[in-house]
Amino acid sequence: MSADGHGLPDNAIRGAHDMIHHAEQEEHEHEAAAKRGLTDQAVEAEHDFMQHAEDDLDAHKLGKREVVKSISMATIVTTTTPTPVLTLNGEEKHRKRDVSTFINYYRDPGDGSPPMPVRISDKTVTNERPTIAEPMVIRDITGEEDKYTLDRNGFHLRRQATQLRGDDFHDSELVKAKYYPEAEQLLKDITGAHRIHIFDHKVRVGPSNWHKLGEGNRVTRGPLFRAHVDQSYTGAELVLRRHFPDEADSLLKRRYQIINIWRPIKTIYKDPFAVADARSVPDSDLLAASILYPRGSRDETWTMLPNNMHQWYFKNAQRPDEALLIKCFDSATSPGLARRAPHSAFEDPDMADSGHRESIEARALVFYNE
Asked: What is the dihedral of CA 149, 229, 323, 74, to 10 degrees?
């Protein structure tokens, strides 16, 4: 009989103590993980990885603290569902989550030739420019929305409700009558500009591969998975002259901008919208590329070369009452001023099974007295 009087051998007692200690340790790990917002599956993955790392510690010279850090970062990036949390007033909030994915850039053939023009007919868009997918981490601005401004970063997120809902956005005349005034007021409030002219809007509800649908694909336009800016510096003047032919020479003497207002029609999960911080994109990464329309008119945009220094951002689970403003052009050239912000849709691998994205983008010429 052992000294403790239980009739069990000492090694059995030690085994029982070890089991109890192991169970308590696992319970502490799960409690700590819950505070970090991790699921039980993530905890098990972390535990297994830690065991493997500890076994290989001498061979790999890997510190336990560094293992924990790398696992925690990987878990944050690959959170599977944007589970909302209800606040006291019933409003849904989503956890901040960065996404590891790819951005499609222009693949430069290296022979000095310009990018092929995009050709737009009455019913069809043809874009045969080659792309290259580069791995990127898209950073979520949730909780830091006010940090990013049009003049510093080239984009800004602002809360603004709209009176339109769902199918209302498919009625072009209703959009012009009701939504345009809302968008104009939002731009005036944010920029202080004295004159706003919304010249265009686009609703996207189609599949993500809409460019490959052939004839008629313009009717079902889906997300655009190519890094670009809607107007080059030359293209901005083309837009201004097209819409204000009689005033163009006078308007060109003062500051003007082209700003897009991008808004979800329903909360966005699949194929979110990313914007690059203007400060991370030098002009040398942008190539002028033409868009050719029927009857001889044209536009000029920027397509974008890859660079691992680019910083991309998005708003996780962006709602219809959250409008994202993107600066496509600014005639002002002050040092440090953002003049354009490249943007693109991207695939969120955790949201691949969600419904098609629905969004509206209004484009505006913004004029100042200065």
From this structure: -80
Outline where the chain has alpha helix (H). 10-35, 40-55, 57-60, 64-77, 172-174, 180-191, 233-243, 248-251
Q: Which amino acid is at 115?
A: P
User: Both 124 and 46 in a single domain?
Assistant: no
What's the CA angle centered on 229, arms 268 and 132, to 5 degrees?
80
Q: Across the beta sheet with 155-159, what order do the strands follow?
A: 155-159, 322-330, 256-264, 359-367, 195-204
Domain coverage including residue 279: 98-367
User: Do 52 and 70 touch, CB atoms closer than 8 A?
Assistant: no
- With a CB cutoff of 8 Å and minimum separation 6, the contacts of 233 are 329, 339
Same-domain pairing of 115 and 63:
no
Model confidence pLDDT, tens digit, residues 153-199: 999 999 999 999 999 999 999 999 999 999 999 999 999 999 999 99
Q: Evaluate whether 328 touches 229 at the Cβ level (below 8 Å).
A: yes
The backbone torsions φ and ψ at residue 337, rounded to the nearest 5 degrees and listed phi first, read: -85, 130
Residue-level pLDDT at 296: 80
Name the nearest CA neighbour of 273 among 210, 338, 332, 204.
204
Say yes or no: 190 and 299 in one domain: yes
